[in-house]
Amino acid sequence: MTALTLSTAGAATLRADALVVGVAKGVKGPVLAPGSEAVDKAFDGKLAAVLATLGATGAEGELTKLPAASGLKAPVVVAVGLGPVPDKEDAYDAEALRRAAGTAARALSGSKKAGFALPAGSVEDAAAVAEGALLGSYAFTAYQGGENKLAPKDAKDSGPKQPLAEVALLGGKPRDKAYKAAVERALALVEEINRARDLINTPPNDLYPESFAAVATAAGKEHGVKVQVLDEKALVKGGFGGILGVGQGSANGPRLVKLAYTHPKAEKTLAFVGKGITYDSGGISLKPAGHNETMKCDMSGAAAVFAAVVTAARLGLKVNVTGWLALAENMPSGNATRPGDVLRMYSGKTVEVLNTDAEGRLVLGDALTRASEEKPDAIVDVATLTGAMVLALGNRTFGIMANDDAFRTSIHEIAEEVGEASWPMPLPADLRKGMDSPTADIANMGERMGGGLVAGLFLKEFVGEGIAWAHLDIAGPAFHEGAPYGYTPKGGTGSAVRTLVRLAERTADGDLG
Ligand code: BES
Ligand code: MN
Ligand code: ZN
């Protein structure tokens, strides 16, 4: 993990490989952002003019590297675009700072140390820069650059490029309690987000229900989270027909993992439920080629829940947080559930499985009922649930559905606050009849139109009476296939972790009903 400190040195005296400054897009050209003053001074106050000559505009995502002026100890200056100059000077949007810091950190991969002279005049600005720089300093290299039998004996294999090793935050107050707490929070949060990203990126031949459960057990031990794993035998005994029905086609059996973080003075309990399909082939309703290459990402919801519970524990939040990871591998085989089979869910309800590729709702149904039994104050599930949600909202926005309008609005506001794009979606009652089954209590498929909402309506039936529940369909943003941007890498993104953690923080602070 990349190190991050509040620097006691100034930008001019900091020994580092590079200094990062922010540049915004003004009407007459690039405008330097607060934090860059000492660097600008070394350029005789002409840094904005130099950048303009180099073609910089200050547009979001823009990156300009230039040799440092004499008087600076660092040899290189990296100017990163922040987008339009804010209406009120130094009221930079937190997400713009986070993305700019991430862009700069990515551009500095392979370097040892960089000083970030981005806006840090408020704790919020410093926190955003810290988060962005750490989130951008991520690379998944576990499967690259190993021994190569064909390489000449004396060849130096440097392996894949490693992320920026050290971030020095300039312009903050290194002895101020609030600044120190913000840095501690960013370090814990991003370390857990990166752990979620690693899990998502790990190929499914290495990450299957049992190995995921083992990772959770080890991390729980390390951070004071109680972990219980229900294996296949326990799932049969408990009557978890949904999880078992999805997992039975695979040689790698399913698991239900319970993570419990408790605080002795907590007044509220939150339950987070994650879809953990370690590989979704579709089962007997097999996905065609072109639709299964990235399906190792189908456990992103469980990864997010896992990361959020551990982060809550590391931050010592005054709230109880329980995480439920519904883990299974969806495979076709002689033992697999057939389209037409009827499963008896943990709740007792029967489900006619019309399409084995609608498996997420089956494992989640069981986990939601089990979570409801403990009567939490609220439940949030996170799932890469439907392609329909990706069609509706695109690749960067998750959908929020809920059985309580106020709770849905709160989640949407929280997501906005932490810089995660989301949008509220309805659960129209008329879509329920499409799931009527002649044989069972409900079918696992309904109308094709509004498929994301149909899935949400299915889940709703497995939530206990009177419990506020929200469902986040992260099928779009969970896994990024395009070129990296801002602090978002290729592959697993860690979508929803920041929203869940902020919800836990606000609940701990008593901000939510
Ligand atoms: N895991 C998929 C949804 C998905 C699609 C996640 C794209 C990430 C990216 C889910 O299990 C699935 O296959 N859903 C089906 C449901 C349908 C058969 C009712 C879908 O969306 O096509
Ligand atoms: Mn599926
Ligand atoms: Zn799936």
Would you write up a description of this structure?
This protein has helices spanning 37-42, 47-53, 94-107, 123-136, 177-201, 209-223, 232-238, 241-247, 300-315, 360-373, 387-393, 405-418, 451-460, 497-508; strands at residues 3-6, 18-26, 29-32, 63-67, 76-84, 113-117, 166-169, 226-230, 255-261, 269-280, 320-330, 342-344, 350-352, 378-383, 398-402, 422-424, 442-443, 468-473, 479-480, 491-492. The protein is of the alpha/beta class. It has 2 domains: 3-146 and 157-175, Leucine Aminopeptidase, subunit E, domain 1, CATH 3.40.220; 192-234 and 251-338 and 356-433 and 449-508, Aminopeptidase, CATH 3.40.630.10. It has an 8-stranded mixed beta sheet, with helices on both faces. Strands 1, 2, 3, 4, 5, 6 and 7 form a 7-stranded mixed beta sheet that branches. A 3-stranded mixed beta sheet has the order 12-13-17. β6, α4 (123-136) and β7 form a beta-alpha-beta unit. Bound molecules: ligand BES, manganese (II) ion (MN) and zinc ion. Zinc ion (ZN) is lined by residues 277, 280, 298, 359-360. Residues 280, 282, 357, 359 line the site of manganese (II) ion.
